[in-house]
Amino acid sequence: MTEQPIDMLLLDGATGPDTAETDVAGGQVVAYTCRDPYKETENQDTVAILPYGPGAVVLAVADGAGGLPAGKRASLTAVHTLAEALQVAMDKTMLLRTAVLNGIEEANSAVLGLANGSATTLTVVTIEGRQARSYQIGDSEAIVIGQRGLVKLQTTAHSPTGFAVEAGFLDQREALHHEERHLVSNLLGTTDMRIDIGTSVELDARDTVLVASDGLMDNVHVDEIIECVRKGPLSDAMRELVQLVGERMKEADGGQPSKPDDLSIILFRKPIVGKN
Length: 276
Prior knowledge:
This protein is of the alpha+beta class.
């Protein structure tokens, strides 16, 4: 593993559940990752919180593609390359959007350069002042949730079911049980990788930003996620989400989704949003 850039916070869950809680960019972030409880192989997810100067942060979740070789190496390589690119860009005072796009392209080249057939998802959310923006490759997802439960941003999984939901052919509950739920149509580490850039969303006080791997999204309904995170301390919200996912992974009950998988979640909130 390469040396971490200054102030980078990385969780890889290599030896067990990995958690972190810190203040950054005028807000609070809580992060968690853990491998699938029913497998012996390593956690293929990698999570990172990457400050970009005093007022901005980049939140990233990468999920090494299951069924492909060296998924963990792919997710680690992607996140480290992105972090290193951001460090260089910050020294050059580059615009954050440009820095992230360049960093993702460099990460794609780095994973391709492994030349071992590996690939990974990568979902990034930038927080800059009051503005949040998503950048997505694959089926790790991001949601911005208001205190009253309003969904202000939700990315679309790059999968047949994700696009079917977006087009209105499936509802989100049907998609959770669909036989093609596991298929991913866009990955970092491929020559045709594409970056889905979200529109900028203005954060109000107490809005919560969530970035998560499919270990969350394949086991919990969006309305359940909203109810868990829209109010109360972030640490409590994280514990509630992790507990709910664990119960779902253990066994299917009452028609609820149940897909054991590596689990990674980042939650971010600005208790008081200033005018910056």
